[in-house]
Amino acid sequence: MAQLEFGLFETLPSVVNPEPARAYDELLASIQLAERVGYKYLFVIEHQSSPYPGISAPNVFLASVARATASIRLGAMVYQLPFHHPVRLAQEIATLDQLSRGRVDFGIGYGVAVEEFESWGIDFAQRRAIGVEAMEIIKAAWANRTFSYDGEYWKLEDVHVQPPPYQLPHPPLWMGGHSSASFDYAAEHDIDLAQNIDVESVIADKFAYYHREWKKRGHARKRPRTMLVRHVHVAVTDEIALAQAQPFMREGLAGQRGVNLAREVRPDASPERKEVARIYSQSTRGYDFWVGEGLAFVGSPDTVIAAIEAQQKLIGYDVLLAHHHITTMPDDLVTESLRLFGEKVIPAFSGVAIAT
Fold it and tell me: How would DSSP label each residue in 109-167?
């Protein structure tokens, strides 16, 4: 019987942090608390040369998480593949998998922020092709002690790889994607699918499309998994939760950077990018938009439980990642929300079959 699983989605709350060492310590303490109160997964988000909150060296941070925890599964959602040399990334993930004794999940993606690519001199238009080739190399590195590869972006000869992953043949794979091209790739290669921005009605359609495409390929396992990231704020009553969350929700889904992105989107941008910009723009309306469109769960434990049940039946996901940092919300409110979610919400789904 499949059951809904829960995890934690984390960033550093501020890119420009006056005390980064303290911020990392506080984030690590939050993850340790999440493990104690029942979260199964931790995923952080990678960003490079970007004003978005994120972690620029995810494997360095996750290595510290691996040694400070015992059971929580960990990874990045996503690693932006075009920013990594694939052999080095393959070896770092394998090392992390060994350090954690097989607790790594590998989330792959290509990146969506043009300015990140421009800063590094990477062709944004080529990001998907670069990422696909990188993934071919990563899989080859995990499967072989030595290998060669002759591609468009990398040419490798007699590469010696160490160590192998702890989990064989490799850690579980997730694809973070918004476009049909990403869904098709995930379906073709039997990779589980994750999403974090679209409104719930759009995600329901996208996940249904992915499941149809996956089924056409005739893979051996019974069904793939899907994962969704949603903002969450839990307090002892609905009134307290709303009063605490509303001021920070009005800042918008990605703060001022999200508002700027909505203004800057080009006329020739993809439909998916235009939709993301619309969501960022509309999210400054606060609670009504966030909760009405299923982008957040806000309320008492009972209210949040009911909202998750309804959304999971609509969309049919297997893993829900709770993102408790709502823009610039103070750490004490974030911590209390995380604790209440683990102690009151997660146990309500124990032994309950999920809609598939």
Answer: E----HHHHHHHT--GGGHHHHHHHHHHHHHHHHH-SEEEEE-SS-EEEEEE-----SS
